[in-house]
Design goal:
The chain has about 180 residues and is an alpha/beta fold. Helices cover about 20% and strands about 30% of the residues. The strands form two sheets. Strands 4-3-2-5-6-7 form a six-stranded mixed β-sheet, sandwiched between helices. Strand 5, helix 3 and strand 6 form a beta-alpha-beta unit. It starts with 5 loop residues before the first strand and ends with a strand. It binds inosinic acid and magnesium ion. Inosinic acid binds next to strand 5, helix 3 and strand 8.
Length: about 180
Amino acid sequence: MAFQPQLKILISRDDIAKAVDRLACEIQRDYQGKQPLLIGVLKGSFVFMADLIRQLDLPPELDFVRLSSYGSARESSGKVRVVQGVKTSIKGRDVLVVEDIVDTGTTISFLLDYLKKKKPASLKLCALADKPSRRRVPVPIDYCGFSVPDKFVVGYGLDYDERFRNLPDIYVIED
Ligand code: IMP
Ligand code: MG
């Protein structure tokens, strides 16, 4: 039988909704009069991205990238690869990357370097969650929803081996 982990609620859907509202306000304030290009990192950010853009009173353009890091269910291997790159031209654009969670920072710093080479006018990062205690590569997070403890979290787009992405709240997997 598949591993049945115990899930303990960490962040409720109401608290997620409040954080998404707050982030949308901050983004809107900073991008006044601009048309940012939001780039979501698949697959984890798709639920967050869908909620965020519906709270933004801006005309955002969207694109997605998909990265792979050949790791186990809980650890990325540290070797990141772009599986699906951006389709939109980002030269001269105000780019805002939307990520689910920044853990060691390896994945997102690789992506930010990849995007920087394409010469955007500006490049910022919005992350739903940050696990600062695990950081190995420093990453500036311009808009951050939550700081989470050093635990594996699932739900609201975040998965454990492709499971639990559909849960509306965020849970910790208990060992
Ligand atoms: P990093 O490269 O170590 O920062 O790992 C980042 C990626 O690993 C994220 O984009 C997530 O897809 C995944 N990840 C890291 N921590 C968690 C977690 O607690 N739950 C679900 N996915 C996670
Ligand atoms: Mg991810």
